[in-house]
Every structure is written in structure tokens, then in C-alpha cells.
User: What shape does this take?
Amino acid sequence: MLLDVKNLRVAFRRDGREIVPVRDVSFTVPEHGHVALVGESGCGKSLTALSLMRLSPTDRATVTGSVKVPPRIAYVFQNPTDSLNPVMRICDQIREALPREMDRTAQDARIVQLLARTGLPNPQRAAHAYPCELSGGQQQRCMIAMALAAAPDLLVADEPTTALDVTTQKQVLELIDSLAAETGMAVLLITHNLGLVAGRMDFVNVMYAGQIVEAGPVTEVLAAPCHPYTKGLLAAVPALDAPRDAPLADIPGTVPPPDRWPPGCAFAPRCAQATDACTQGEPPVAANGDRRWRCFLKET
Assistant: This one.
């Protein structure tokens, strides 16, 4: 496996209490594989991704478990405006990711080549622009060019289409798909939209309250979800053929903060199928071939 994560746990201390926003997370990404980590905001997806390279937001975090990472891993973060340095030209930011032994002329040529590869119409202009002179979509393409500069074995795309319009979202996702096919790099896509993984990813891990509650091949999970949370996420994806006045489905309530994970199944307070057993003990892990999920309820 290119990426092999076993029992990843991230903990913080606050006011003398231990808070565990990521709890015993295990998943893999094979070579050239396309794997998704899906869940609502606050489920621990981004923190899981950052912890792969010990990039947790504070040095007070305790990260335990086993993580085997490839030699070269690159990130594309969800908000390029926050990720790019506003007082540096794009070329100078990409230059930092290039091999130091390259002379400046070769670096300049490589930077323009990388930007052109992302489909920017005027890569020379973009290279010498400041981030504020580019649109959100253009900034994200620059972030992708920066990630490609290191020739990564694995690209971690953390909500790469956040704050972009629908058309630009589609373009950015298609760009990542085409670059992965061209370079052979594997992709770990982090998203809150389960509908985005259809036809794009091979395997999906559904995350809730710091745990992976369901995992399996995308086609199987989308066709027959097992966990009530996965079913809720799928139901919340608007259908293109639905009547214009049809109400949008949602999951009642919100994801609780890490310092208030409920006992038993964390999803129980929002689950219409929950029973008394769901609030007691750790949900068992059920298996069905290559499918795994955590739930007290029987498969339906």
C-alpha cells in the first residue's frame, strides 16, 4: 500500500481534560488509487489528513498510531487564499517546492510549464502575479501546480473546491483527475459531498465524530449504504430529476464538538433508528465482504 494508516489517534489537553477529535482511524490508499474521506464539517477529516505528516494545528497535540507514507506527498488545501502568501509572487512560492540544485533559468521554465499544465490560459502572467490578482479558481490551479512541483506519489486534496462556483469546482476536480491519470499519482480526496465521489473515486471512507463509520468500494457504498449516517448523506444530495419544489433532505442536528462526543454511537442523537443499545458501549464493526461499518443496527 502507498499509504497505510492504522489506529490513528489525535488528542489534545484542554482545562485538564483529554479531547480526542480523531479516534482510531484506519484506512489505506493503494498505488495509483483514488480514495475519498467523506463527512460533514467537524468530523475530523482535515485533522486526519494533516496528521499524516504531523501537521496538526498545535504542537500540543498527541498523535499516536501507525502511518506509512510514500516518499513524496503533497497537499492542496481547501482555501487557496489562506494558503498562498499574499506578499509573494506565485513564481516565488512555487520555486520553494522545486529542487534547490536547479538553476534559476531552469526553475523559471519549470514554473511556467507547471502552471500551463493546470490549464491556466496565460501561465507567464500568472507566474508573476500576486495571489490577489487572480481569481479563486486560478489560485487553486496555482496551488495544484505547486503540489505537482514535487512530483508527488500521493496528492491529498482537502476540500479543494470550497468557496468556488459550481463551474470552477467541476474544472478543478476534472483537472485533478486528468493529472492523476497523466502522472500516475494516487489521490486522497477529502470532501463533505458524497455525491462528488461517484465516478471519480474507487474507495470511500465515511467519517463521523472522529471515526470511520463505513468504508467500502464506492459503487457498493452508493448503491447500498449500510450505516444510517451514510444513508443520510446520500439522501441529502439533490436529485437532478426531482421536482423544482421538492423539499431538500437533511440530517437533523449537527455534529457535536469533540469535547462532547456522546456515549455509545456518536450518531445516535441524530439517528431516527437509534435504540437504547446505541447509547451503550462501542458500536460493533460489521463486515460484508470488502465492506465494513460501525453500527448496532442490523444490515437492511
Q: What stands out?
A: Residues 166-183 form the longest helix (18 residues). The first strand starts at residue 3 and ends at 14.
